[in-house]
C-alpha cells in the first residue's frame, strides 16, 4: 500500500501512539527466518487502524505504533561490534525529541554513545545512542540521503532487531522529525522481554534491509549496559489482583526510573475463545477490558501518560501482558490511585494482510463523541463543556510572529486527559496544525495548560473545539489504590 494513497489527515494519525496488541502464538518459533510475505504482513500491521481519529487513544502525538519485532537477517556488511560508551550526551537526539513531544525524562544522562554510520544505496543510517533497562531499549538514530525520502515517520527499527541473537514480538513507540529535506532524526522505544532475560550487558544487532521502500544493507552490532538506569530505578511489587468483567489482571510491579514511570500488568482471559473470536471478527486489539488507566499521585495530581496499553497476548493460552507508561516523577508518592477506562475509537478501520499477502480492508466498532465548539471572537473567558468529564475554560488566545498560544483551565475528573482534546478549525473545516505536540502544564497549578498551534491568519474566522467524551467509559466504580511501601 502506498502511503500517498492517504490524505494528510489520515497520515497524521500515525503520529498518535496507539496501543498495540501482539499475538505471540502466531510467530513461534521465533528463530525461523522471516519470509517476504511475513515481512509484508509486519509492514501492513504498522498501517492498521490508520483512520482512527484523536479519540482512539487520547495520548500525546508520536510518530507511529511499533507493531512487531520480527527481522530478516542478511549477515553481511555488519560493522565491528562496539560497546556503547556510558557518557552523558550533550546533544542527545533522544532527549531533544522526547522533550519536543512532551516526555521530559533524563534521557541524555542515561544515553550511551554509539555513533555508528552505515551507508547503502545512497542512504546513511546512523545509530547515535542507546538506553537500556530491564524492559526496553531506546535507540536514537539519524537517516540522511541525497534526496528527500517520504514517510520516515513510519520507519521502525524493531522489525530488524535481535538481542543476544534472538528475536521476539515487541511493542513501543517512535518520535521523530525532518531537520531538513534530506535528514530525519528519530528515537524509538522498543519494549521486549528479551532485555529482561539478558545480563547487564545487552548485545544488539540490527540488520536493516529496507528504509521507506528503498532496499539496502544497513547492518549494526553493538552492546549497551543496563547498569546505570537499573541502579537508579526504584521497583515496587504490590501483587494486586483485579477482577474485570472479561479478565483477571495482576499488577506485577511498578518501576520509577529516571526516564519514566511504568506499571506492569499480566493476566488471563475469563473466556479465551470469546476474546479470540472478537479479535478475528471485530479486529478488537485491546489487550484487556479497561486497558487505559488514568493514574493520580497521593496529592490527587494526574500522572502524564506516555504510552498506555502496549504489550502482547496469546489468545491460545488466554494470557496477556501489558504496560501502563507515564512520565518521570520527581518524587515517589505514598500511593497511586488508578481509574480504569475503556475508549471506543471515534472512527476506525484499516488494512491487514492474509496468509497469502493479500490486502484485507476492515472496519472496527466505533463511537463518535459529540463535538463542542465556540467561535473565536476575542472575548474571554470562553467555556466549553466536556460532558460528564468536566469542562475547559479558554483564558486567552494570543498570536505572535510564528504561532498561536492557547491558555486554558481544565476542571473535571482527569484534567490532563481532558486537556488533550482541544483543537481549532478554520471556516472551511480544516484543522489547524499544532506548533508543538507538548501540552505544557503548570506544575504549581495542575489544572492550567498551554497549547501552541501554528499561526492563525488574522483575516480568517476560526472555531475552537473539544468533545463530550461520550466514547470513554471512566470507571470510577473500578477505582483502586496501589500502596508504595517496601
Automatic annotation (TrEMBL):
Residues 57-145 form the DUF4179 domain. Gene3D superfamilies: bacillus anthracis domain. Pfam families: DUF4179, DUF5643. Residues 234-360 form the DUF5643 domain. The chain crosses the membrane at residues 61-84. Keywords: Membrane, Transmembrane, Transmembrane helix. This is DUF4179 domain-containing protein. It comes from Clostridium autoethanogenum.
Amino acid at each position: 500500500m502506498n502511503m500517498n494513497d492517504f490524505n494528510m489527515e489520515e497520515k497524521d494519525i500515525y503520529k498518535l501512539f496507539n496501543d498495540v496488541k501482539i499475538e505471540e502464538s502466531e510467530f513461534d518459533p521465533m528463530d525461523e527466518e522471516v519470509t517476504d510475505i511475513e515481512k509484508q504482513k509486519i509492514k501492513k500491521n504498522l498501517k492498521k487502524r490508520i483512520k482512527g481519529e484523536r479519540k482512539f487513544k487520547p495520548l500525546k502525538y508520536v510518530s507511529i505504533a511499533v507493531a512487531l519485532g520480527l527481522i530478516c537477517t542478511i549477515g553481511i556488511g555488519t560493522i565491528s561490534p562496539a560497546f556503547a560508551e556510558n557518557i552523558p550526551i550533550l546533544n542527545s537526539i533522544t532527549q531533544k525529541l522526547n522533550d519536543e513531544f512532551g516526555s521530559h525524562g533524563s534521557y541524555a544522562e542515561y544515553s550511551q554513545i554509539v555513533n555508528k554510520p552505515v551507508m547503502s544505496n545512497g542512504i546513511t543510517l546512523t545509530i547515535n545512542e542507546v538506553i537500556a533497562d530491564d524492559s526496553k531499549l531506546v535507540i536514537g538514530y539519524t537517516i540522511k540521503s541525497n534526496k528527500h525520502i517520504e514517510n520516515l515517520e513510519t520507519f521502525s527499527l524493531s522489525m530488524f532487531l535481535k538481542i543476544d541473537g534472538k528475536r521476539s514480538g515487541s511493542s513501543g513507540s517512535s518520535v521523530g522529525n525532518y531537520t531538513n529535506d534530506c535528514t530525519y532524526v528519530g528515537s524509538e522505544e522498543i519494549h521486549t522481554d528479551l532485555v529482561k532475560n539478558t545480563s547487564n550487558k545487552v548485545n544488539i544487532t540490527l540488520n536493516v534491509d529496507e528504509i521507506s521502500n528503498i532496499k539496502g544493507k544497513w547492518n549494526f552490532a553493538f552492546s549497551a549496559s543496563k547498569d546505570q538506569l537499573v541502579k537508579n530505578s526504584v521497583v515496587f511489587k504490590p501483587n494486586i489482583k483485579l477482577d474485570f468483567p472479561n479478565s483477571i489482571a495482576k499488577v506485577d510491579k511498578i518501576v520509577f526510573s529516571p526516564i519514566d514511570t511504568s506499571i506492569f500488568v499480566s493476566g488471563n482471559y475469563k473466556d479465551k475463545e470469546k476474546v479470540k473470536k472478537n479479535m478475528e471478527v471485530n479486529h478488537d486489539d485491546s489487550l484487556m477490558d479497561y486497558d487505559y488507566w488514568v493514574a493520580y499521585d497521593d496529592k490527587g495530581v494526574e500522572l502524564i501518560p506516555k504510552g498506555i496499553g502496549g504489550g502482547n497476548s496469546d489468545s491460545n493460552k488466554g494470557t496477556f501482558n501489558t504496560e501502563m507508561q507515564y512520565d518521570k516523577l520527581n518524587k515517589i508518592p505514598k500511593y497511586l490511585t488508578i481509574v480504569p477506562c475503556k475508549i471506543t475509537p471515534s472512527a476506525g478501520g484499516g488494512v491487514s494482510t492474509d496468509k497469502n499477502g493479500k490486502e484485507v480492508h476492515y472496519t472496527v466498532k466505533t463511537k463518535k463523541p459529540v463535538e463542542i465548539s465556540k467561535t473565536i471572537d476575542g472575548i474571554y473567558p470562553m467555556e466549553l463543556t466536556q460532558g460528564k468529564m468536566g469542562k475547559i475554560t479558554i483564558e486567552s488566545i494570543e498570536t505572535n510572529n510564528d504561532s498561536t498560544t492557547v491558555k486554558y483551565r481544565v476542571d473535571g475528573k482527569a484534567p490532563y486527559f481532558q486537556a488533550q482534546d482541544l483543537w481549532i478549525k478554520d471556516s472551511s473545516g480544516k484543522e489547524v496544525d499544532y506548533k508543538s505536540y507538548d501540552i505544557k502544564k503548570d506544575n504549581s497549578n495542575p489544572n492550567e495548560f498551554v497549547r501552541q498551534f501554528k499561526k492563525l491568519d488574522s483575516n480568517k474566522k476560526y472555531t475552537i473545539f473539544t468533545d463530550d467524551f461520550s466514547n470513554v467509559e471512566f470507571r470510577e466504580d473500578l477505582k483502586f489504590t496501589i500502596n508504595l511501601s517496601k
